[in-house]
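Worked example 2:
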Amino acid sequence: MRRIDAHQHFWRLDRGDYGWLTPALASIYRNFLPDDLAPLLQKHGIAGTVLVQAAPTDAETEFMLSLAGEHEFIEGVVGWCDFAAADAPAKIAQLAGRAKLKALRPMIQEIADIDWMLRPELEPAYSALIAHDLAFDALVFPRHLENLAKLLARYPAMRTVVDHCAKPEIAAGDFHDWAARMKVIATGSNAFCKLSGLVTEAGGDWNVGRLRPYVDHVLSVFGPERVIWGSDWPVCTLAASYDEWNAATDALLSVCTQEERAAILGGNAVAFYRL
């Protein structure tokens, strides 16, 4: 089994474009760079990663691609592009020429307009993603899932993955509405789902038992062939260490066969992101 961490971040505070990253998030308000992650990957036998954007700027994408050029274990980059810009198709075409750029991710969760993703002026950007075989990372909350289903119906050829299981409100015990909306996404499209980010949604007192209904539901409706594992490191460390999330993953995937685990923990990421 070749393991891939399909969702991790790096940042350097002096770059200054991480609007969400403030001193209030004290434990992660510092630089996180490849030398910090490499020992954890080695410890857990993880061969490669997908580095995901953490700021909505072109400079962020260039920063990540520069790191990917310097570190072999970064096998893919999920960058950012202004989908609403008039030159978005040209920009996407340019980015598609960068070897490790595999996907783009508008930060939908940070956009006030819940209908933003359905705006007609974004059509050229979605069409360019499809034309250049780049994937779409959907960073959404449960309240966005109805619109996401509409978007995926408009663009069935767009390779899409739902980040962090759409961030269910685990700490609040919200399950049924989220579960119903995720089932619509799973059954009505070819979208994948990332098994990541759940510990931070469950809070500091999380446990495997609290996560299990959410993971079991994702496995049931998407199937192990459309679930992709990621750590969301270092954001995950707000609630759990890399070691703890790996241990939780082992427990949560104990219902899966060896072949299914191999797909979730690496094979699906390789296929989806064209690693």
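The chain has one domain: 3-273. Strands lie at 3-8, 46-52, 74-79, 101-104, 135-138, 160-162, 192-195, 227-229.
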